[in-house]
Every structure is written in C-alpha cells, then in structure tokens.
Amino acid sequence: MSDFDAAAGRYTTIAGEHRSELEIKRSRFITVLRRTETEQQARELVAQLRREFHDARHHCSAFVLGPDRSVQRSNDDGEPSGTAGIPMLEALTKRETFDGAADLSDITAVTVRYFGGILLGAGGLVRAYSASVSQALATAPLLQRRRMQLYAVSADHANAGRLENELRSAGYSIRGTDYGPGGASITVALPDVPGGADAFLDRLASLTAGGSAAEPLATEWIDL
Q1: pLDDT tens digits, residue range 61-89?
Q2: What is the pLDDT of residue 1?
Q3: CA-CA distances (angstroms) from residue 109 to 48, 71, 101, 175?
Q4: Three-class secondary structure of residue 45 per DSSP
Q5: In which residue ranges of the chain is pLDDT below 50?
Q6: Rounded distance, CA 150 to CA 206, Å?
Q7: Separation of alpha carbons 224 and 204, rounded Å
Q8: What CA dihedral angle connects 16, 141, 174 and 180, to 10 degrees?
Q9: Pick from 63, 140, 149: which is nearest to 105 by CA?
Q10: Which uninterrupted H or E stretch holds 125?
C-alpha cells in the first residue's frame, strides 16, 4: 500500500535521532530528525538546535505526530513562504517505509541552513529543503509501532517458564512474567485486529490442555 492507513493499527517512526548534511551552492543544510510524540517535544528540538547552531540564518522545521498523523505543522523560519517547511513536511509524509507504506509519524525534522552567498531562488530552496530531509531519511534508523492488545495468561509456577518459552517459540510477543503467591502471570501482546486473538487462544488451549486462562488487559502502541 502507498497511502497511510490508520485502521491498519501500525505506523513507522524513527529510532531515536539522526543527522545528515547536504551542501548546495555553498549553502550548508544540516537536517536533524528526532522521534517526538508531542508538540512540546518537537518545539524543544527546534529550540535546542537554535542554541546549538546559534549563528545559522534559518532553522526550518516540520513535524508529524500521532498514530493517525492528525498533527502536522511546518515553519519556514524566514525563508520565502512555502519554500522550506512545506517541502520538508511533504518529504516526511510521502516517504515510503516498510512494505511501501507512506506512514511516518511521531517524527520532527529541523533543517539548519548556513547561507553560502549564492541565492537559490524559490524553486531551488524547495528542492534543497526537500532533498535534505529525504537524504536524512534514507539513512535514518526506523522502526514500526503496532497497536497491540495485552493479555494476562495465568500459569502455575512449575509450568510458567516452559509455557513462556513455547509461546515465544511460536512467535508471540511476551512483555514480561510476574510471579505471585498464587501463581504466575505472563503478559502477551497480540495485534489489535478483529479475530486477532482467536489463533492464540486455540494455541494456548493446546499447550496447556485448557489449564490456562487469558484475560484481556489494556490496548497499547508497542515498538516492534
């Protein structure tokens, strides 16, 4: 698929922070990408880079936030209107990631420009800011997030370790095991899709001869 699909219960984000630099006609374009989950975090990155690159002429930015990408902002920071922030934002929203999906979110891009003395023109600026973000994305470490339904699987102490290993071997995501006085509780994360738990419940019944129950807990977004 090429378009973002919030109903799919997954999206892609950056793993941490990544930097890249591009020189065009003696102007330096330094792009910093960072994982951000709130507008405050995005603005904090802009403020941090204003301090770090305090002698630069422009600190243009764009960010996309939320599993459904409902928050999208851009800022030209003194460049001619529409020549920096919007091209940067489009580079983020149109970037294809895993399986050809354009689903980047929870990401902020800031491009710092040191003017090199040669005017690029409006078209040149659009291409430069877009290329700077695209180049940074090409080498940035990305990861997928998926909406998961957590289940608590009960087990006695004697069988908890074996059951956890068998579930891992079967490809299920184990988020942890808690041991209490009355037994153990294994937290399993399953994709939050219609019928997503059916095969798991059948496997659990087979592994434990019906001796373990699975209780649904919260739904969370989890890094894969």
Answers
A1: 999 999 999 999 999 999 999 999 999 99
A2: 34
A3: 13, 14, 19, 31
A4: helix
A5: 1-4
A6: 20
A7: 22
A8: -20
A9: 63
A10: helix 121-139
